[in-house]
Amino acid sequence: MSNRLTYALYTGCTARESTPELLKSTLAVAKKLDIELVLLDEASCCGASHLQDFDDFLSLVLNARNICYAERLDLPMVTICNTCQLNTAMTKERLDSDPKLRARVNEALEEVGLVYKGTVSVRHFLYALIEDYGLERLRSKVVKPLSQFNIAAFYGCHNIRPSQLHNKMNKGEESPYRPTTLDDLIEALEGNSVDYDHKNRCCGFHVDLQAPTTSNILTGNAIIDAYDNSADFMVTPCPLCHLNLDVKQEAALKTINREARLPVLHLPQMIGLALGCSPEELGLNHNVVPVDLV
Questions:
Q1: Which residue in 277, 286, 294 sits closest to 148, CA to CA?
Q2: Residue of 98, 82, 86, 220 lying closest to 155 (CA atoms)
Q3: How far apart are alpha carbons 63 and 175 in whole angstroms?
Q4: Which of 237, 235, 272 is nearest to 33 (CA)?
Q5: What phi and psi values does residue 219 have, to the nearest 5 degrees?
Q6: Among 6, 173, 264, 279, which has the highest number of CB atoms less than 10 A from its own CB?
Q7: Quick one: CA torsion of 140, 76, 267, 46, rounded to 10 degrees?
Q8: Do the Cβ atoms of 7 and 30 come closer than 8 Å?
Q9: In 211-251, beta strands by DSSP E
C-alpha cells in the first residue's frame, strides 16, 4: 500500500498568470517530495474577495463548482493562494452548515452537470505539508540547509483569519495574533526565523485600487520592518501578498521614504532551495526583486 500523498491542486488565477513561478515551484517541490498534485484545469477564479461584494450567491456557486471538481476526483483540495483558501473554505463552511443554501447552489450547478456534496477537505498547501507530510519528514529531505539566511515569514491575512474557519479546515490551530507554522517550517529547513511585528499584518493588496497610498504604506512598512530586523529575504504563502511585496516594493518604499532591496520568495521557492531545486525549476528569474541566494 502506497503512502504517497495525492491532492487536487486548485491553483487560482494568479499562479497561472501573474506569478507563474509559484505554480512552477509548487510542482517542482511536489516532485522532490513525491507528492502527486492533480491540477484542476476546469476550475475558475474564486472571486478574489471582490465578486463577493457584488453577488454573494454567484460567488458561492463559483467556488462550489471548483470544489466539485475535486470531489469528482475524490481527492482533498489544496490551494496555493491565501485569498483562494479563504473564499473556498468559506463556501464549504456555509454550504455544509446550511442545507437550504446548499440546495439552491446545487440547483444552479445542475446547469453544468455538477452537484456539491461537501465530501472533500480544503486546505492551503502550507498546512498540508506541515500536517500530512510532517516537518520532521521534510527536514530529512533537506540537502541545502538555509542556515546562512535570516528569513522573515509573512503570513498575510486570509490564511489565518478568521481563526474559527482556519481551525475547522486544518488539524491544528493557528493564532492570528502570534502565528507559528511558517516560522516552524523555516526552522525545519534549518533557516533562521526573523521575529518582527508586521509578519501577520495586511500587505495592502485588497485596497490597492481604492487607496493606493494606503496600500503602499502597508506594504512598505512590512518590508522595512523585516529589513530592519536583518532579514535576508521574506517568504509568503500568498501570491497576492507577493505581488505587493515584490512587484510593488520600489514604489512602496518610496512612499514611506525608505530605501532597501529585499528579495521576496513564494513558499515553495523557499522550500525548493532547501531541497536542492535549481533556480530554473523554481522560476526565480520571474521575481522582480533579484533573488541572489544560490
A1: 294
A2: 82
A3: 26
A4: 272
A5: -65, -50
A6: 264
A7: 180
A8: no
A9: 233-236
**Residues 21-35, mean pLDDT to the nearest whole number:** 98
Q: Record the cell numbers describing residue 45, joined without a space.
A: 477564479
Q: Which three cell numbers stand for residue 219?
A: 506594504
Instruction: Please say whether the beta carbons of 266 and 291 come within 8 A.
Output: no
pLDDT on residue 50: 82
- Residue 105: partners with Cβ closer than 8 Å, 6 or more residues away: 57, 60, 61, 64, 95, 116
93 has pLDDT over 60 = yes
First to last CA, the chain: 38
DSSP 87-146: HHHHHHHHHHH-HHHHHHHHHHHGGGT------S-EEEHHHHIIIIIIHHHHHTT-SS--
Model pTM?
0.97
How confident is residue 2, by pLDDT bands cut at 50, 70 and 90? low
User: What are the pLDDT digits (tens) for 151-205?
Assistant: 999 999 999 999 999 999 999 889 999 999 999 999 999 999 999 999 999 999 9
| Separation CA 256–CA 294 (nearest Å) | 30
56's CB contacts (< 8 A; 6+ apart) are: none
C-alpha cell at 19: 506569478
Instruction: Please give the Cα distance from 247 to 208 (Å, whole number).
Output: 13
290 cis-preceded (ω within 30 degrees of 0):
no
Compute φ and ψ for 266, nearest 5 degrees.
-70, 155
Q: What is the distance between the alpha carbons of residues 232 and 152, in angstroms, rounded to a whole number?
A: 8
Is the pLDDT confidence value at 1 over 70?
no
How many alpha carbons lie under 13 Å from residue 142 in its C-beta half-sphere?
20
- Cα separation, 148 vs 132, whole angstroms: 28
Helix (H, G, I), strand (E, B) or coil at 52: helix
One-letter amino acid for residue 279 of the chain = P
Q: Which of 2-6, 34-38, 155-159 has the lowest mean pLDDT?
A: 2-6
Grid coordinates given for 208: 490597492
